[in-house]
Amino acid sequence: IIDASVFNTLKTDYPEKSIVFDGNDYSLTIKGSDITTLVPNTQQYDLSLTFSAPEEDKIWNLITDLSQENWDLEPVYVHFNHHGALPADMKFSISLGQKYQNSTLYWNYYNEERERIDYYGYVNSNAQGGFALPLTHMSTYVVTRKRIVGAENKVGILGGAVENLSTSYSTGKANPNTGKEQ
């Protein structure tokens, strides 16, 4: 859990620096120069995540109600304990393991307020099943091996006007601690 004042200090006193928050199999990186404003009324950010979501059954029902073609999906839930906007884009790097190595994976958002699944684009994983993408909002995301039929298309909202979210971080290390190039 990070106090919001940390981001303000980074923005004002260390704009040339970045902070990397490491979790188990994931990291979040934010640059001081990228912080333009702080999110009002947010005192703390819980940057932890789990691979299960409190609303997992509801999400699965939404996905399968969209189309029978979705019934064979094996979703990976990425649930952040914080729900809301971030003070700036963060580089989100995650490793899902070798089961997901060298794959095209589809990045979807569970839009709780509108009770729907939003599709934001795809990523290409590396040999360790890792990938990186820009993250502007924390909530519950769903990673799948094929596109969710019937999901609301939000391509271009995240990471610019491209569907391939991997292009945002196509060079360098997906996770600074792995030593592996993406």
Structure description:
The protein has 182 residues and is mostly beta strands. It is built from 2 helices and 10 strands. The protein has helices at residues 4-13, 56-66, and strands at 2-3, 18-23, 26-31, 44-45, 49-50, 76-95, 104-111, 116-124, 130-144, 152-153. The strands form 2 sheets. Strands 2, 3, 5, 6, 7, 8, 9 and 10 form an 8-stranded mixed β-sheet that branches. A two-stranded antiparallel ribbon has the order 1-4. The longest helix is centred in the middle third of the chain and has 11 residues, at 56-66. The two termini are 28 Å apart. Mean pLDDT is 88; it is low at 170-182.
Distance between the termini: 28 Å
The amount of helix comes to 10-25%
Major β-sheet annotation: 8 strands, mixed
Residues in β-strands, percent: 35-45%
Name the assembly state: single chain
The count of β-strands is 10
Tally the helices: what do you get? 2
Radius of gyration: 16 Å
Mean pLDDT: 88
Topology, please?
Layout (H helix, E strand, L loop, with lengths): L1 E2 H10 L4 E6 L2 E6 L12 E2 L3 E2 L5 H11 L9 E20 L8 E8 L4 E9 L5 E15 L7 E2 L29
Parallel strand pairs: 8-10
Antiparallel strand pairs: 1-4, 2-3, 3-6, 5-6, 6-9, 7-8, 7-9
